[in-house]
């Protein structure tokens, strides 16, 4: 019954995303999870985040998740199902706001994301998490944001961190390889610039140089919104520098389906959640500390 309701909601994705996510979250009921909502992590902008955690978490891995929405839309509150899915597997999960275009361009939302990661690193222990087991994760444009944080150390350095303090990066159908931007992509041109020399500042594959955390890259082979080559190109760049990367491609899965496979009604369709959790559990903490 819950699956049937979810599929009806999924059919309205094109015109009523807020309704879709609200309905999706009503199907998500899990026990043993505590949540704290609306924590301000950047007083200068008023940006907030939500934390989902196992009730008895001690030195648990921590994931900071950035949602998609073409860098122009989306709300952290829509992604409760992501937070509870991971928390139900023993992972403290932080879902953060970031400012959108046209309020800010790339430098603005990347600075917001870096501040959210720095907050999670500083406060992990307060929620039963371990700062040395800090992962960043994102879907679609959120995957781009997390991917750029993992590859270009400039953003975390501004917050007193390095990419070496990340245990890993998990990308769900992220945008990593997009230069040159097509002339009809007006929003992307506004965010990243019109000249390829400007655009390359925002392209994660350009910054892979051997100093990245381990990566798990997930993509649906039926994705029509973000082409699969984005994930395969980033995986190839990591392999060229002999860096640890795992690429998972799911036949018959589209762009939104990859994300929604984390939700309770669809978890049995593809092993997306299992693959994410397995990667987190098997990846050593940042700095080479032993895994608890």
Secondary structure tally: strands:
8
Mean pLDDT: 90
pLDDT < 50 stretches:
1-15
Number of helices, where a helix is a run of at least 4 consecutive DSSP H or I residues: 11
Order of helices and strands: HHEEEHEHEHHEHHEHEHH
Q: How many angstroms separate the termini? A: 39 Å
Radius of gyration (Å): 18 Å
Percent range for β-strand residues: 15-25%
Shape: globular
Largest sheet strand order: 1-2-4-3-5-6-7-8
Question: For the report, how would you describe the main beta sheet?
Answer: 8 strands, mixed
SS-based structural class? alpha/beta
In which range does the helix fraction lie? 25-40%
Task: Give the secondary structure arrangement, pairings included.
Blueprint: H1 2-11, H2 17-26, E1 33-42, E2 47-54, E3 60-66, H3 80-87, E4 92-96, H4 106-123, E5 129-139, H5 141-151, H6 154-157, E6 168-172, H7 186-192, H8 196-199, E7 215-220, H9 229-240, E8 245-250, H10 255-260, H11 272-282
Parallel strand pairs: 3-4, 3-5, 5-6, 6-7, 7-8
Antiparallel strand pairs: 1-2, 2-4
Helix pairs in contact: 1-2, 4-5
Provide an overview of this structure:
- By secondary structure, the protein is of the alpha/beta class.
- The protein has helices at residues 2-11, 17-26, 80-87, 106-123, 141-151, 154-157, 186-192, 196-199, 229-240, 255-260, 272-282; strands spanning 33-42, 47-54, 60-66, 92-96, 129-139, 168-172, 215-220, 245-250.
- It has an 8-stranded mixed beta sheet, with helices on both faces.
- It is globular and about 50 Å long.
- The protein starts with a helix and ends in a 10-residue tail after the last helix.
- The model is unreliable at 1-15 (pLDDT under 50).
